[in-house]
Design goal:
The structure holds two protein chains of two kinds. By secondary structure, chain A is an alpha/beta fold. Chain A has 18 helices and nine strands. The longest helix of chain A is centred in the middle third of the chain and has 19 residues. Chain B is 46% helix and 11% strand. Classes of the chains: A alpha/beta, B alpha+beta. The complex binds iron/sulfur cluster and FE2/S2 (inorganic) cluster. The site of FE2/S2 (inorganic) cluster (FES) has 11 residues of chain B, from α5.
Chain lengths: 427, 158
C-alpha cells in the first residue's frame, strides 16, 4: 500500500464530486499554486521529473508529449480522452463519477503548462452519471472562478466543454477521437503529424487520459520526488475471478500476486489460471508470472504490457478458448473498417473461433489462427486496435494450446467437462 | 412525421457555439433529435443536415457509424447486456440466455410490445459489477437471472 493515497482518497465513500467536499481536502490548491507561483516551463519541468506517463495504454511520458506543442501558436487545445473503453478498464469512469474536480484541476494545470484556453472532455456515451457529475462540477467551478476568465485572479482564461461520445471503441484512439470531436466518423488519422502539432481543427492539441490528468494536482502538491517516492502510485482496475473486483491504488511495480490479493484474492477453493495484466490487448500471463512487477518495462520483458493497468483475473474454471474468442469478437465488432488486415483479419479469426467452439474445428485451424495473427502484426494494421489482437491470441496458443487441441479433437471443452465431473454429486 | 419542435431546433443551432467548426455539433445535434423522436428517421437526418448546413450524405454516414444512434424505431427502454470479459467470466452467458427467453427476442431486436430493445454490449466500464447490464441510464449488477426478472417487470410498467 502506498504511504498516502493520492487519487483513491478523493473517490472513497461519497467521493468529492461536490465542490465543497473537494475544497475541504485542499481542492484546487495545486492549480492555484501552479498558476500563481510557477511558470508554465516550471510546471512542465516538474511533471517531467515526476516521471508521469500516460495512463491510457501507451504509457508515453506526459511532459514529453506537452513539449511537442509549439509555444507561439495562437490557438491550442486540451482534449481529455474519457472514451477509452479498453475492456475491463473502469478506473477512468469511476474518477469522472466520484472525483470530477480532480480532473478539472488537472486540466487547469495542463492547459496552463501548454498555453491552451479551451478544453474538451470527451466522455463515452454510456457514462451518463459520469457526464452529469462532470457537468455539475464544471458549473460549480465556473461559479467559483476556477474556470472561465482570469482564473484565481491571474491572467489565465480557460473554458471547459463536456462532449459526449456516441458508442465507438475506436474513438478512444487519440486521432480517431479528434475526428469524432470534429463531427465525423471516428477513424484514425495518419501520424505524423502528431496531435501536439496538428490536432483538433489542425491546431496544436494535447490529448490526455482522465487518470493521467487527475495525477497532476498530486504531482504539483508533492513535488516530483515526493510523488515518485509513492511508487509512483497508479490505479489498477481489477476484475474477473477475484472476490472484490474494483479499483485499487498501488505503487507501479506491485507484483501481480499482490494486486490480486488487494482485490480479495481468488474465490474460495479456486486456483489461479491466467490473467491479462493490461486489458484484453495485453498478452495473457500464467501462474509462472505471478511475481512479475506490474510496471511498464517488467511486463514488456515477459512479452506483455501494462496498458491501462486493467488486470483481468481468470481461475481454473475458465475456458481460455472462449475467453480469447470473446476478445477477438470485440475487436471484430469495433474495427473501424479502414484497413484490410484488421477488418478482414478480425472477421476471419472470429469465424474460426466460432467453429472451434461449436465443435466443428479442423486440424489445420491452429495454424490458420497463427497465420492470420501474423498478418496483423508488426505494423500491418493502421492503428493499435488491429495490433491488439495478436498478443493475446498468440500467448493463448503458446500457453494453452492443449485446450484448443482438445476442443478441435473432441468438439468439447475439457475445462467444462472437468468442472461438471467435479460438481456431479458422485451419482 | 412532425418536424422537430422549435426549441430543439434552437438548441441544435446553439450547440455550434462551443466549437470552432460547426460540424463538431453534429453528434450532439443528432442526440437532440433522437431525444425528441426516440430514433432518427430519414426526415430527422435531413433536418439536422439543414440546421448545420451539412450534406445529408455526411450526416447519414456519421449517424450510421456510431452505435448509439438508432436508424430504426427503438423500444421504450434499451437493455444493454455486457458480455465482455469480466462479465463473461462471471456468468453473462446465463443472463443472455435468460433474457432471450424472457423477452422472446434475440440480441439486436425489439420486443413485439415495444417495451424493450435488447442488445449485447461491449464493456460498459462497470466490471466491478459483473455480470451487469444497463437499462436506459442505470447500471445493475452483479445480477442473478431472478433479479433480471424483477428488473424487467419494473421497467415494463414504465
Ligand atoms: S487497425 Fe482496425 S480500427 Fe485501426 S484503422 Fe485499421 S481497421 Fe480501423
Ligand atoms: S466487462 Fe462487463 S462491464 Fe466491463
Amino acid at each position: 500500500m502506498p504511504a498516502e493515497s493520492i487519487l483513491l482518497r478523493f473517490m472513497e465513500g461519497e467521493g468529492t464530486a461536490d465542490l465543497e467536499a473537494y475544497l475541504r481536502v485542499e481542492g484546487y490548491a495545486a492549480a492555484r499554486h501552479a498558476l500563481t507561483a510557477l511558470t508554465p516551463e516550471e510546471v512542465i519541468e516538474i511533471v517531467d521529473r515526476s516521471g508521469l506517463r500516460g495512463k491510457g495504454g501507451a504509457g508515453f511520458p506526459t511532459a514529453r508529449k506537452w513539449k511537442f506543442v509549439p509555444k507561439d501558436a495562437p490557438l491550442k487545445y486540451v482534449v481529455v480522452n474519457g472514451d477509452e473503453a479498453e475492456p475491463c478498464t473502469f478506473k477512468d469512469h469511476m474518477l469522472l463519477e466520484r472525483a470530477p474536480h480532480l480532473l478539472l484541476e488537472g486540466i487547469i494545470i495542463a492547459a496552463y503548462a501548454v498555453g491552451a484556453h479551451k478544453a474538451y472532455v470527451y466522455v463515452r456515451r454510456e457514462g451518463y452519471l459520469a457526464r452529469e457529475r462532470l457537468r455539475q462540477a464544471v458549473a460549480a467551478a465556473y461559479a467559483r472562478g476556477f474556470l472561465g476568465r482570469k482564473i484565481f485572479g491571474t491572467g489565465m482564461d480557460l473554458e471547459v466543454v463536456v462532449h459526449s461520445g456516441a458508442g465507438a471503441y475506436i474513438a478512444g484512439e487519440e486521432t480517431a477521437l479528434l475526428e469524432s470531436l470534429e463531427g465525423r466518423r471516428a477513424m484514425p488519422r495518419p501520424r505524423p503529424p502528431f496531435p501536439a502539432v496538428f490536432g483538433l481543427y489542425g491546431r496544436p492539441t494535447v490529448v490526455n487520459n482522465v487518470e493521467t490528468l487527475s495525477h497532476l494536482p498530486a504531482v504539483i502538491r508533492l513535488g516530483p520526488e515526493g510523488y515518485r517516492a509513492l511508487g509512483p502510485p497508479a490505479l489498477f482496475s481489477v476484475s474477473g475471478h477475484v472476490r472484490t473486483p474494483g479499483v485499487y491504488e498501488l505503487p507501479l511495480g506491485t507484483p501481480m500476486r499482490q494486486v490480486i490479493a488487494a482485490a480479495g484474492g481468488l474465490r474460495p477453493g479456486r486456483r489461479f489460471k491466467a490473467a491479462f495484466p493490461g486489458g484484453s490487448s495485453s498478452a495473457l500471463l500464467t501462474a509462472e508470472h505471478l511475481d512479475v512487477p506490474m510496471d511498464y518495462e517488467p511486463l514488456r520483458a515477459v512479452g506483455s504490457m501494462l496498458g491501462s493497468a486493467s488486470l483481468i483475473v481468470m481461475d481454473d474454471t475458465t475456458c481460455i478458448v472462449r475467453v480469447v474468442a470473446r476478445a477477438v469478437a470485440f475487436y471484430k465488432e469495433e474495427s473501424c473498417g479502414k484497413c484490410t488486415p484488421c477488418r478482414e483479419g478480425t472477421y476471419w479469426l472470429s469465424q474460426i473461433f466460432d467453429r472451434i467452439l461449436e465443435g466443428r474445428g479442423r486440424a489445420e485451424d491452429l495454424e490458420l489462427l497463427t497465420h492470420i495473427s501474423r498478418g496483423m502484426s508488426n505494423g500491418a494494421c493502421f492503428c493499435l486496435l488491429g495490433e491488439s489482437v495478436p498478443p493475446g491470441l498468440e500467448a493463448s496458443l503458446r500457453h494453452f494450446r492443449h485446450e484448443y487441441e482438445y476442443h478441435i479433437r473432441t468438439g468439447r471443452c475439457d475445462v467444462e467437462a472437468a468442472l461438471a465431473a467435479a460438481v456431479a454429486p458422485g451419482a | 412525421m412532425a418536424p422537430l419542435p422549435d426549441e430543439a431546433r434552437d438548441e441544435i443551432r446553439r450547440l455550434q457555439r462551443h466549437y470552432e467548426q460547426r460540424q463538431s455539433a453534429l453528434l450532439p445535434a443528432l442526440f437532440v433529435a433522437q431525444r425528441e423522436l426516440g430514433w432518427l428517421p430519414p426526415q430527422a437526418l435531413q433536418e439536422v443536415a439543414d440546421l448545420l448546413d451539412l450534406p445529408l450524405s455526411e450526416v447519414t454516414a456519421v449517424a450510421s457509424f456510431y452505435r448509439f444512434f438508432f436508424l430504426e424505431p427503438a423500444g421504450r427502454h434499451l437493455i444493454l447486456l455486457c458480455t465482455n470479459l469480466a462479465c463473461l467470466l462471471n456468468g453473462a452467458e446465463d443472463l443472455r440466455r435468460h433474457l432471450e427467453e424472457r423477452l422472446g427476442v434475440r440480441p439486436g431486436q425489439t420486443t413485439p410490445d415495444g417495451a424493450f430493445t435488447f442488445r449485447e454490449s461491449e464493456c460498459l466500464a462497470a466490471c466491478h459489477l459483473a455480470p451487469m447490464l444497463m437499462v436506459d441510464r442505470e447500471r445493475f449488477g452483479p445480477l442473478t437471472p431472478r433479479e433480471v426478472d424483477e428488473l424487467l417487470e419494473r421497467y415494463r410498467a414504465r
